[in-house]
Structure formats: C-alpha cells, structure tokens
Design a protein that fits this description.
There is one protein chain. The chain has a five-stranded antiparallel β-sheet with strand order 1-2-3-4-5. The protein has two helices and five strands. It has one domain. It is an alpha+beta fold. The termini are far apart. It is elongated, with a radius of gyration of 24 Å. Strand 1 and strand 2 form a beta hairpin.
C-alpha cells in the first residue's frame, strides 16, 4: 500500500500563488486605509492645536504663543507650566511632527512686548499648516487653520486660506 507523504511541489506552488494574489489585492487597500487614518489624525491634531493656542492666549496674556515649542512641556519634564513651556501638548506635537504629518506654526503680527514672565512676545494671529511627510504615502491632503478655526484642505499642494474647508 502506497503512503501519501505530504504535498507535491505543484500543490505548494499553487497555494503560494493564491496567497500572493490575495496579498496583491489587500495591500493597496491597507495603504489607502493607513493614509486616511493619518489624514483624520492630522485634522484632529489641528483642532487640538487651535484649541490649545487659544487657551494659551487666555491664560498667559502673551497673545498667541511664539512657537509650537512654547505649548510643550518644560525641557526637564515636570508640571511647571509657564508661558515659555505651557505644557498643553506633548513633546511629539511640540516638535511639529505627528502621525505622518509635519505641522508648521507661523505667528503673525508680533505683539509689542512679552507678557509678564515670558521670554518672548507672542503674536496677534497665526497659521498652522499640516502637510504629509510623503505625499501619496503618509497622506494625500494638506491642511491649514488660522484663528477662525476653519480647517481648509488642498490635495496637491500646501493648503492656504483660499482653499476649500474640509467637508465643504
């Protein structure tokens, strides 16, 4: 009586081919889902930043912060919040990078003098740009927000105040 000792080479090659076909179908969908997740996280981060910037302005009487780093924690850690290190965002966001996006904060119209106890004067206005680290891989859309709180988007270049709002 002949014993069956496993799979033939042909059978194994067919199984591997089927697995490769399934992977070829699934991987682009996975990459697209990851890109959408990064874009959604960037929108949420812009909302958080806009709220924290407004909170900074109301707490420290120094206008809008002089930089994103001023919203972050003190250099040595701890909970001592000052207008130079407001401890409103984590180190990652204070550095300007998060979830595949680069966040660029630009203060506009500097106030004449720094608030009491502040090393640097803040600004009367601001803009924040959120751009994918690698367009088409970490995200497709760029985003923009200013003190109005309206988040705007552009799919081919950095977003500006003239671009369409998200959802619009």
């Amino acid at each position: 009586m002949k014993r069956n000792r496993g799979f033939t080479l042909l059978e194994l090659l067919i199984v591997i081919a089927i697995i490769l076909i399934i992977a070829a179908i699934a991987i682009p969908d996975l990459l697209h889902s990851t890109m959408i997740a990064h874009e959604t996280a960037a929108i949420g981060t812009l909302k958080t930043l806009e709220t924290d910037i407004t909170e900074y302005s109301s707490i420290y009487n120094n206008g809008f912060p002089p930089s994103l780093a001023a919203l972050g924690p003190p250099a040595g850690g701890g909970n001592n919040s000052t207008c130079d290190y407001a401890n409103l965002v984590d180190n990652t966001l204070a550095s300007g990078r998060k979830s595949g996006y680069v966040f660029t904060y630009t203060g506009q119209d500097p106030i004449p003098a720094a608030g009491q106890g502040c090393a640097n004067p803040g600004f009367s206005s601001f803009t924040i740009h959120a751009d994918p680290e690698t367009r088409g891989q970490t995200g497709q859309r760029s985003f923009y927000v200013d003190p109005s709180g309206t988040i705007r988007q552009n799919t081919s270049q950095p977003a500006t105040a003239n671009d369409a709002p998200i959802g619009g």
